[in-house]
Design a protein that fits this description.
By secondary structure, the protein is of the alpha+beta class. Helix content is 36%, strand content 34%. It is built from seven helices and five strands, in the order ααββαβββαααα. Strands 1, 2, 3, 4 and 5 form a five-stranded antiparallel β-sheet that branches. A hairpin with a 5-residue loop joins strand 1 (25-39) and strand 2 (45-61). Helix 1 (3-11) packs across helix 3 (65-75). It is globular, with a radius of gyration of 17 Å. Mean pLDDT is 81; it is low at 142-149 and 181-186.
């Protein structure tokens, strides 16, 4: 997951404080025997088991139980958090993986798509395209994002699947955060 999206899910902002940033560490990693597909009519990917394929991603340390709870809500019922083995990348190669130097193998949890392959495009999801053209829908409020907000309000096709700043999943997370603040203040 792109760190700015992770920060937004866990901290409610894509621009966390220095202290919040210090709580998590990120390292590039490789998940073998899996492939990342684009979900039909959405901006986000799905990881599914697939032989002879690998997914480059991010190894994140420092997540709390509360962070995992928010991530579980964010990912929704289409995904299941599962234990997998990854390899930390000591050297990150190009987009095709040429030049990757793998290091330590680590057991981690990641979100695996469980909603069926019929909801996935055949091709691999393009992370560079997401960062370039779609990520702003997930981390900022903009005029273009206003169209997504309107689509959500009208129950039209929401390319973030409810995961955008004002999507249904985000609204549930904000409500839960308010409940947690109230409970901790009592």
């Amino acid at each position: 997951m792109e760190p700015q999206v992770l920060y937004r899910v866990c901290y409610g902002t894509s621009a966390p404080t220095s202290f919040q940033k210090s709580l998590l560490s990120f390292r590039p990693a490789l998940l073998h025997e899996h492939r990342r597909h684009r979900v039909l009519q959405h901006d986000y990917p799905a990881i599914v088991p697939q032989q002879c394929s690998s997914v480059r991603g991010t190894y994140v340390r420092g997540l709390t139980d509360g962070d995992l709870y928010r991530l579980d809500i964010f990912e929704g019922v289409e995904y299941e958090r599962r234990r997998v083995k990854i390899n930390i990348l000591e050297i990150e190669g190009n987009e095709a993986g040429e030049g990757n130097v793998e290091g330590e193998e680590v057991t981690v949890e990641t979100y695996i798509w469980v909603a069926g392959k019929r909801k996935l495009e055949d091709g691999e999801w393009d992370f560079a395209e997401f960062r370039r053209e779609k990520m702003h829908n997930w981390i900022t409020s903009s005029e273009e994002y206003d169209e997504v907000d309107e689509a959500i309000k009208n129950h039209a096709n929401d390319p973030t699947g409810g995961r955008g700043l004002n999507g249904s999943i985000t609204e549930r997370l904000e409500a839960k955060k308010e409940d947690q603040v109230l409970n901790s203040a009592v």
